[in-house]
Each structure stands twice: as structure tokens, then as C-alpha cells.
Write a structure and sequence with these properties.
The complex is a heterodimer of chains A (389) and B (243). Chain A has 2 domains: 177 residues, no CATH class; 176 residues, no CATH class. In chain A, 57% of the residues lie in helices and 17% in strands. In chain A, the strands form 3 sheets. In chain A, strands 4-7-8-6-9-5-3-11-1-12 form a 10-stranded mixed beta sheet, sandwiched between helices. A two-stranded antiparallel sheet of chain A has the order 2-10. Chain B has one domain: Rossmann fold. Chain B is globular and about 45 Å long. Chain B has 243 residues and is α/β, with parallel strands linked by helices. In chain B, a hairpin with a 2-residue loop joins strand 1 and strand 2. Chains A and B meet through helix 1, helix 11 and helix 14 of A and helix 1 and helix 2 of B.
Chain lengths: 389, 243
């Protein structure tokens, strides 16, 4: 028998209470891990976006309004010496859904010639670029719909548009992007969409957004200013934003999600600290006599303190592990898709969230157990024995 | 003249409650020889348990000195006193105070966690202690699976497993019926006679007191009488009765 064994046996003393306490840790920890994973995913996305040096140019009035496709040439012409701008890609929102589903993919028709340059982070191989340019119905999709609907490269798939004129187009998958943060994307060629629109009598050639791939942060900032100045006073004024600011239009439409998540995480930590603290105080009060006996037998103050504190910490860690493992397992087996979360299309449990949850559990366990442990340490053996004798 | 095993000099013990001073022991001096069986009697509040706690190093006197063997308890730090207690004193309480989630053997083993010894030696010591109290067949039982008498026997095994020189028993039969009390007193007789332990027992029961070699009567914190029994009673031991 060891002290650890005694500790474990103590947890079995009141199994229902131990189970409920562990559960009281586990459930908030599961929510905490998911919330922090979401915030981490946003931060990762922002960091990646910053590296891509992409500037989004859209209608100043609102995102859903369009701009003439000729703006692309005008934007390109602003880089007179050809040092600031690498390529401009016009895009039009398609709002594609897999027939008979409500799952709207982030589906956009993109300029065929510049898409592979502007979206170099999709890491299209030379063969894929050739296929993209050769095949008018070529489509690049994320891992999310590919997994959900069993799509493979070479498959022909149909998407129904959720916006007028509600086209139904067939595409040929030429690439599946494995990145989780691009999980819900579906890009295809704009000339294919334009031709299809013309077939139903819609001859206007306009884009919802132009993505401008820049060479540096300084170039991006100067172009951002110059583009908006250039189109100021025109019937279609522009608003240029970097990709993070553009993404924030979506997330802020849902409220301050990262702020809410972080606040939620804080509340969770406070709740479990109170629950654990209360449980440990109850447990200590019930065992005053027993702890006095430990001291009478020769366990010194430090050992008694460690025994009570270890129990609290062990409970907290067990709860955290029981909360984290199924959550991580769930997201690993079935990654959560969030089609309405804008730039976040897929959520995976972040190692940072797991580490954070375990650290918080440890700290909460220590904090919750500290006072009862201190009380146990200060307990006067004689008084405790006299009280219960 | 042989030096006393336990020597208390001019002991005064005062408790404070709501700023009121409550004297419990007043100018008490006492010598106990090694291997003696001393019984402490007296009305509630007379200071019997306090005296026991002072001798066991669970409490400190307000004034006076407590020497046990070569150890001067009032000069020891908290840690020194705790270490000394774990090696020299075995406690037996009225309410047994066993850890409910541990088996009888594990309860007996508990004090040995503080000692460096091999698992084999530890197991042997636990077995021997349980054998002395006649409970080897109940070693895997938890306290709630034992009778009151059996629980007290486990508590006695726990008190002797470290082979202490002094056994302090605070009303060990106070919660037991007459028959079981006789068994427990028999065990204390055994520890006194065969194992040569110095035993101090607090009791209200004159029949239990008859087992001691010497009886002290305390009243209002002072020693009233100090009698030596010419022929202390003996009882059948628990080990013998369960065999």
C-alpha cells in the first residue's frame, strides 16, 4: 500500500459524489476545449491570411453588391512599375448547394488564369494547374464536402446555386484541398459560370470581389488606399480590405465570437473552481476526524496538506481528461463543419486547447484544494478528536 | 532507583475559549515506570484525556515538563514531535477511528507508510499485529464489515504495528458491550504482560480499571489518589477467544 493508493481509495469513499464532481469538471472542460479550439482556429486563420498578402476589393455599399469585371484591368494598371502586385482574381458568389441539402458551400467562380497565383496557398501542383486551365468545368474543393459526400478527384458533381438565376451546374473535381481551415471551399472557373449565365439571358459580367495578391505588406497598404481613391466618385465605389478584415465582416456579423468564447471559457473556469472548492470543503469537513487520526499516527502537517491537495488536483485532472478525450475523439472522428461561421469552416481540437485545459484543471484543482488542505494542515489533532469523540 | 519511563513535572494546562481561561491540569507531577499499566480515572472534565494527549505528544503543556525516555517533549518542534510520536506511541481511541475505505490490514499498515522498510517486512509486521489481536482471518474486511469489538482489535493492531514503547488508550471499551470489553481488556493485558508495553488507559469503568497495575484518580485537574493494585485482574485475550 502507498499514499497514492490511500488517495485513490479516498476518491471511492463516496462514488456518486466523486463521479458527479468529475462530471462537473468534464462537461465544462469539453466546452472549454471546443471554445478555445475555435478561437485558436481563428487566430491560425488570421496568421495564415496575413502571410498570403491578399487584398479583397468589394463594393463599398455592401458585400452582396457587385463590381464590373473590368475593374480587374483598372486595378492591375495601378501598379505601374509592376513591383507591388502579382495578380488579380475576380470572383463571383455562386452559393452552391449539393442537390437536396441545405449545406451551402463557400462556392465562388474565380478567374481561371490568375486563381492558381492568387490562391498559391492551396498548393496546386503543375498538373492540377494544367487540369484547371484545360477543363472549363474544373473545380477545387475542400476536404469537408469531399468527406461528407464521398467526392474524389475526377468525380463529376452537381451544385445548385442558392442565388438568382438559380443555376444548376456540373463540375469536375480536379483537386481536394486537405487543409482543415479551407474545409468548406468550392472554387470553379468564372468563364464557365459566365457562359452559363449568358445561356439564360444574363449578359452582365460582374464580380462580387477581386482578390489582389500583393508582394509585400507595404505594397498591400499602398494599393488598398490607391484602389479606393481610384474608384471614389464612380457609380461602383470600392472598399479594400486585407483578408483578416474581410473575414471579420462574417464573424462580427455573428457577434464578437472570439470575445464571447474567451468570456465563456473564463466563466467555465470560475464555475468549476467553485464546484471543486465546495466539494473539497465538504469532503474535508466529513473527514476532520480521519485527518486528525492521520496526524496522531505520525503524518506531519505537510503530508496531510499534500494528501488533501493531491485529492483535489487528481479530481480536477480526471475531470479534465474525461472531458477532453471524448471531445477530441468526437472532432477527430467527425470534424465539425460550420458553414455559417464564415472563414472557419472546420473545427479541430487544438493541442493548445488541450494543454490549456489540463493546465487550468491543475490550477483549479490546486486552488480549490488549497483552503481545505490548509485547514487540514492547521487542524489541531486534540481538538478534532475531542469534537468527535 | 530505576529512572521513570514517563516523567511529568509541574504540569499546568490551560485552554482558552472565548477569551476565558479554562484550567484543565494544575501543577501535576507524575512518574510512570517502564512496563507499567496505569489507569486514569475521574469525572468528565477532570483532565484525564488531556494528560494522555500530553504524554502522547498530541498537545503541549502550558507550563511544566514532559519527559518520555530520553525525549523532552516540550522542547521539540512540531515535526520532531510528530516523528517521535510515530515511533514511540500507539493510540487506541474509544471510537476506533479506522479509515473506512481501507481494509483491516491496510488500516494496520497505515502507520508503517511513514517507515522505510521492504514490502515483505511491512506485510510480515501487519500479519503479526493482526495475529496478536486474533484477526488474521478478517484482514481483507473493511471496517463496515466488522463488529465494534473487531474494529477495536484492528485499532489495537494499528497501535502496536510500529512496536511502540507506550500504548495510550482513551476509553477503549467505552463503546463496547461487556463481553467484548473483556476481550479488549484481555488484549491490553497481553500487551502489558507478554510484550512489556507501558500502557496508560483512560476509563470510567471500574471493571476495566481493575486490569491496571496502578490507578490514578483525577479531579478538577489535580491528582487525588494514586493506588497500586496488588492483584490486577486478567482476562481471556481476543486472540485466544477467537482461536
Amino acid at each position: 500500500m502507498t499514499i497514492s493508493y490511500v488517495l485513490m481509495q479516498n476518491l471511492r469513499r463516496n462514488r456518486t459524489r466523486t463521479a458527479l464532481t468529475i462530471l462537473a469538471f468534464a462537461l465544462p472542460m469539453a466546452v472549454f476545449v471546443a471554445a478555445i479550439s475555435f478561437v485558436t482556429a481563428l487566430h491560425t486563420l488570421h496568421t495564415n491570411n496575413e502571410k498570403e498578402l491578399r487584398l479583397g476589393v468589394h463594393n463599398k455599399q455592401r458585400l452582396t453588391s457587385t463590381l464590373p469585371s473590368g475593374y480587374r484591368r483598372k486595378i492591375e494598371s495601378l501598379d505601374t512599375d509592376g513591383t507591388r502586385l502579382r495578380a488579380v482574381c475576380g470572383m463571383r458568389w455562386y452559393g452552391g448547394r449539393v442537390p437536396n441539402t441545405q449545406n451551402t458551400l463557400t462556392s465562388l467562380a474565380a478567374d481561371g488564369d490568375t486563381f492558381p497565383i492568387v490562391y498559391s496557398d492551396l498548393e496546386m501542383t503543375p498538373e492540377e494547374v494544367i487540369a484547371w486551365k484545360r477543363e472549363r468545368t474544373a473545380a477545387v474543393t475542400g476536404i469537408g464536402p469531399a468527406t461528407t459526400y464521398g467526392w474524389k478527384v475526377g468525380d463529376r458533381v452537381t451544385l445548385d446555386s442558392s442565388v438568382p438565376p438559380y443555376l444548376s451546374l456540373e463540375f469536375k473535381i480536379i483537386k481536394i484541398v486537405p487543409k482543415a481551415e479551407r474545409g468548406n471551399i468550392f472554387y470553379f472557373r468564372r468563364d464557365y459560370l459566365q457562359a452559363s449565365r449568358e445561356q439564360v439571358g444574363l449578359l452582365d459580367d460582374r464580380c462580387h470581389i477581386f482578390w489582389v495578391k500583393c508582394n509585400s505588406v507595404a505594397a498591400m497598404r499602398s494599393l488598398q488606399r490607391e484602389i479606393d481613391e481610384h474608384f471614389a466618385g464612380s457609380p461602383d465605389e470600392t472598399k479594400s480590405e486585407d483578408e483578416n478584415a474581410f473575414g471579420a465582416n462574417f464573424t462580427q456579423a455573428l457577434g464578437d465570437i472570439p470575445g464571447l468564447m474567451e468570456a465563456l471559457a473564463g466563466v467555465i473556469v470560475a464555475i468549476i473552481a467553485l464546484v471543486a472548492g465546495n466539494t473539497m470543503m465538504m469532503s474535508f469537513r466529513e473527514r476532520t476526524r480521519e485527518l486528525a487520526i492521520f496526524k496522531a499516527l505520525g503524518f506531519h502537517r505537510g503530508r496531510v496538506f499534500a494528501l488533501v491537495l493531491s485529492e483535489s488536483t487528481l479530481l480536477a485532472l480526471l475531470g479534465a481528461i474525461i472531458g477532453i478525450v471524448p471531445t477530441a475523439g468526437f472532432f477527430w472522428i467527425s470534424p465539425l463543419r460550420i458553414p455559417r461561421m464564415g472563414p472557419i469552416s472546420q473545427l479541430e481540437i487544438s493541442p493548445l486547447a488541450i494543454g490549456g485545459a489540463l493546465s487550468i484543471a491543475l490550477l483549479v484543482g490546486i486552488a480549490a484544494g488549497f483552503w481545505p488542505a490548509y485547514q487540514a494542515m492547521k487542524l489541531k489533532t486534540v481538538d478534532a478528536l475531542r469534537r468527535v469523540a | 532507583m530505576q529512572r521513570a519511563e514517563i516523567e511529568l513535572r509541574n504540569i499546568r494546562k490551560v485552554y482558552h475559549k472565548d477569551r476565558i481561561e479554562i484550567p484543565v491540569l494544575e501543577n501535576l507531577s507524575l512518574d510512570v515506570a517502564s512496563g507499567d499499566f496505569l489507569v486514569l480515572m475521574g469525572p468528565s472534565g477532570s483532565g484525564k484525556s488531556t494528560l494522555l494527549h500530553l504524554i502522547g505528544g498530541l498537545d503541549r503543556p502550558t507550563n511544566g515538563t514532559v519527559r518520555i525516555g530520553d525525549a523532552q517533549l516540550e522542547t521539540m518542534s512540531e515535526r520532531q514531535l510528530t516523528n517521535w510520536r510515530s515511533r514511540n506511541v500507539g493510540f487506541i481511541f474509544q471510537m476506533y477511528h479506522l479509515v473506512p475505505v481501507l481494509t483491516a490490514a491496510q488500516n494496520v499498515e497505515l502507520p508503517l507508510l511513514l517507515f522505510k522498510m521492504s514490502g515483505k517486512e511491512r506485510k510480515q509486521r501487519v500479519h503479526t499485529a493482526l495475529e496478536v489481536v486474533g484477526l488474521t482471518d478478517r484482514s481483507d474486511h473493511r471496517p463496515n464489515q466488522l463488529s465494534g469489538g473487531q474494529e477495536q482489535r484492528v485499532a489495537i493492531a494499528r497501535a502496536i504495528v510500529t512496536d511502540p514503547r507506550i500504548i495510550l488508550a482513551d476509553e477503549p471499551t467505552g463503546d463496547l458491550d461487556a463481553k467484548t470489553s473483556v476481550e479488549i481488556l484481555g488484549l491490553l493485558d497481553l500487551l502489558h504482560k507478554d510484550f512489556k508495553k507501558t500502557i496508560l488507559m483512560v476509563t470510567h469503568d471500574p471493571r476495566a480499571a481493575a486490569h491496571g497495575a496502578r490507578t490514578l484518580h483525577l479531579e478538577k485537574g489535580a491528582l487525588i489518589t494514586d493506588n497500586r493494585n496488588a492483584q490486577p485482574e486478567t482476562a481471556t485475550t481476543g486472540a485466544q477467544s477467537s482461536a
